[in-house]
C-alpha cells in the first residue's frame, strides 16, 4: 500500500522537459530524460512535437497542439510537483508564450529554462522569423535561455553574438553555447541579469561531435540548478558533463554516464 502512494525519491528533485520526440534518442525529450537521470534528478517528459529523424537525417515534424501539451502537464501535476522546467522544440513563439503563461499561473514560482531549437542539426529550419517584442516578453517570464551562436543571431537579428546575448540578459539570464563559436570553438558564455558575464571551457580537448549535444548541455544545466547549485556552478558542472558525453565514443550518439 505504501509503495502505491509513494511518488519519487525526495532526495532527487523532479525536473520536467517539454520537448520534441527524437526516435534516435540523441536529442529532444529522450536526451533530456537521459541527462536528467545521469545527473541524479528525476526526469519527466511532455511531448511538444513528433519528429521523424535519426542521428543524421531529419524528414519532418508533426506539432502537438498546445491543449494536448497542457493536458500532459496537468495529469503529471496530479502526482508530482515541478519547480525546474526545461522547454525545447515548440511550434512558434505564440504557443511558447501561452505555455509559459500557463506554467507561471499553475506552478508556484517555476524556474523555466528555454533551449530555443530553431534548426535541426540535419539542416531543417523550424523558425525563420522572430518577433522581437514577443521574444522579450517571453524572456521576461523565464529564468534562463540557452541559445547557440547561430540561434542568438536568428533570435535577435544582431550579428555580434556576445552583444546580442548581453542585450537579451536585460530580461533573463543567457547561456550562450559555443559549439558554433568560430573564433573559439567550444567556449561558452554566461550573461546574467545583474550585468555579470563568465566564460566556460571544458577541461579536456573535445575529440568528437554528437547529435543533440546542445540539448544535453541545457538539460545538464537545468538538472544542476534543480540540485540547488548556483547558476555559475551549475553551468560549470553541466559544461564538464557535456564534455564527457562528447568524448564518450566516436559515434554520433553519445553515452550518458550514471
Please characterize this protein's 3D structure.
This protein is an alpha/beta fold and 258 residues long. It has a single domain (12-246), classed as UDP-N-acetylmuramoyl-L-alanine:D-glutamate ligase (3-Layer(aba) Sandwich), CATH 3.40.1190.20. Helices cover 37% and strands 19% of the residues. It is built from nine helices and nine strands. The chain has a nine-stranded mixed sheet, with helices on both faces. Helix 2 crosses helix 8, helix 4 packs parallel to helix 5 and helix 6 (149-156) crosses helix 7 (161-168). The longest helix is centred in the last third of the chain and has 16 residues, at 231-246. The two termini are 30 Å apart.
Task: Supply database-style keywords.
258 residues; UDP-N-acetylmuramoyl-L-alanine:D-glutamate ligase; 9 helices; 37% helix; 19% strand
Q: How would you characterize the largest beta sheet?
A: 9 strands, mixed
Unreliable stretches: none
Number of strands: 9
Shape: globular
The CATH architecture term is 3-Layer(aba) Sandwich
CATH first level: Alpha Beta
Strand content: 15-25%
CATH homology superfamily name: Ribokinase
Q: Tell me roughly what share of residues is in helical segments.
A: 25-40%
Strand order of the largest sheet: 3-2-1-4-5-6-7-8-9
As for the number of domains, it is 1
In CATH terms, what is the fold-level topology? Answer: UDP-N-acetylmuramoyl-L-alanine:D-glutamate ligase
Number of helices: 9
Radius of gyration: 17 Å
Topology as H/E string? HEHEEHEHEHEHHEEEHH
